[in-house]
Amino acid sequence: MNVDRHLINKCIEKNNKAQQALYETCFAYFMSICRRYSRDDQEAMSLLNLGFYKVLVGLSKWKDHIPFKTWAKRVLVNAIIDEYRKNKKYKAVEYHPEHMEIGSQQEHSTHNLSDNIWAEEEILEWTRSLPAMTAQVFNLYAVEGYPNDEIAEKLNITEVTVRWHIYEARKRLKIYLKQTLNVNKV
Q1: pTM
Q2: Average pLDDT of the segment spanning 43-51
Q3: What is the CATH architecture assignment of 97-185?
Q4: CB 139 within 8 A of CB 127
Q5: Do the beta carbons of residue 165 and residue 133 sit within 8 Å?
Q6: 3-state secondary structure of 101
Q7: CATH 1.10.1740.10 fits 5-86, yes or no
Q8: Domain edges within the chain
Q9: By C-alpha distance, which of 97, 83, 99 is closest to 132?
Q10: Which tens digit of pLDDT belongs to each residue from 78-106?
Q11: Torsion sign over Cα 114, 32, 8, 62
């Protein structure tokens, strides 16, 4: 995603053609992020439009020493988090220690996972199958690289709950990978 300062300045001046050009430049990258945080493409598109609006509104705050792509991604992810907070339909699953098997070493497959390549669509399908809050925590942790304390603060949940969601996502990922491997062996 290559965006130059001239285009940004035109967008700040509210030039519609420049804003459209920026939207088209950012679309594929933003959509790939929004799809990870949504249940379907329609919701992803809604999140993308909301996030792009926040990017446009905040353009004057962008500093040249920060890569535009990095700054815009941060604004987009924060807009998505704010939207989840605003919509109460995405409630957090609380931490239940009796369901957590800390340190359990389940059977390890001798199959080399590097021999398999999962398409982005398969991973997206798996992520969308997770409960909403678990998917959101997993994306923030595994994809965006946020630390547990920052995720807890952003989502207004405890760090213990964050760790539980990460554990739950990993557990479900193992099951998904085993099922996928077994299907591919047939």
Answers
A1: 0.63
A2: 94
A3: Orthogonal Bundle (1.10)
A4: yes
A5: yes
A6: coil
A7: yes
A8: 5-86, 97-185
A9: 83
A10: 999 888 877 755 444 444 444 444 333 33
A11: negative
